[in-house]
């Protein structure tokens, strides 16, 4: 991020600018059901990946093994607490949110940075972007459709 950064530039695809704001939004949007649905799908979709990461952690980081904890995931917040915090070795959910906040670190970014967001990304769209912190070396792109996990095109997803 600072002067010793070996990168010449970077692209951030749908970054989470403020985890605290995002999770607050999850609790309030559509009566919190959205966070519950996302948590349920995270539990289903990530079960195999978590098992693979657990295997990698067995020898050097046994304290980071999630194990059957994945079965306790019922919301996106509980996924963060049970999986992200443990796998990455954070001490708490608060520490994970604090350290994953891009908003508090934007002033340290010195290289040209392109932020790409989508208008229809209800979690991390442009309205979550702290526009007052945008500097001269930032370029912001906002598409009509897309998402913070990527831009997909194909059979199920609209192609135009």
Features of this protein?
10% strand; globular; alpha/beta; three-stranded parallel sheet; single chain; 2 domains; 4 helices; 160 residues
Can you tell me about this structure?
This protein has 2 domains: 1-16 and 103-160, no CATH class; 19-100, no CATH class. The radius of gyration is 17 Å and the shape is globular. With 160 residues, the chain is α/β, with parallel strands linked by helices. 37% of the residues lie in helices and 10% in strands. Helix 2 (33-60) packs parallel to helix 3. Strands 1-2-3 form a 3-stranded parallel beta sheet, with no helix packed on it.
Q: Give the low-confidence spans.
A: none
The count of β-strands is 3
Basic shape: globular
The largest sheet is: 3 strands, parallel
Rg, alpha carbons: 17 Å
Instruction: Give the rounded overall mean pLDDT.
Output: 85
- Strand content is 5-15%
Tally of DSSP helical segments: 4
Largest beta sheet: what is the strand line-up? 1-2-3
Distance between the termini: 36 Å
Structural class label: alpha/beta
Tally of domains? 2
Helix-strand string: EHHHHEE
Topology:
Elements: E1 10-13, H1 19-28, H2 33-60, H3 76-88, H4 93-100, E2 113-118, E3 138-143
Parallel strand pairs: 1-2, 2-3
Helix pairs in contact: 2-3
Short synopsis of the structure:
Helix content is 37%, strand content 10%. The chain has 160 residues and is α/β, with parallel strands linked by helices. It has 2 domains: 74 residues, no CATH class; 82 residues, no CATH class.
């Amino acid at each position: 991020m600072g002067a010793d950064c070996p990168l010449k530039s970077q692209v951030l695809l749908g970054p989470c600018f403020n985890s605290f704001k995002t999770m607050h939004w999850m609790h309030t949007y559509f009566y919190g059901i959205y966070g519950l649905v996302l948590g349920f799908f995270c539990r289903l979709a990530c079960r195999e990946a978590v098992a693979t990461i657990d295997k990698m952690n067995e020898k050097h980081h046994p304290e980071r093994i999630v194990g059957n904890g994945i079965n306790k995931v019922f919301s996106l917040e509980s996924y963060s607490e049970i999986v992200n915090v443990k796998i990455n070795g954070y001490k708490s959910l608060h520490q994970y949110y604090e350290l994953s906040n891009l908003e508090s670190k934007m002033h340290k970014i010195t290289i040209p940075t392109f932020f790409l967001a989508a208008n229809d990304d209800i979690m991390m769209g442009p309205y979550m972007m702290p526009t007052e912190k945008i500097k001269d070396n930032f370029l912001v792109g906002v598409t009509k459709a897309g998402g913070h996990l990527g831009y997909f095109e194909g059979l199920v997803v609209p192609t135009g």
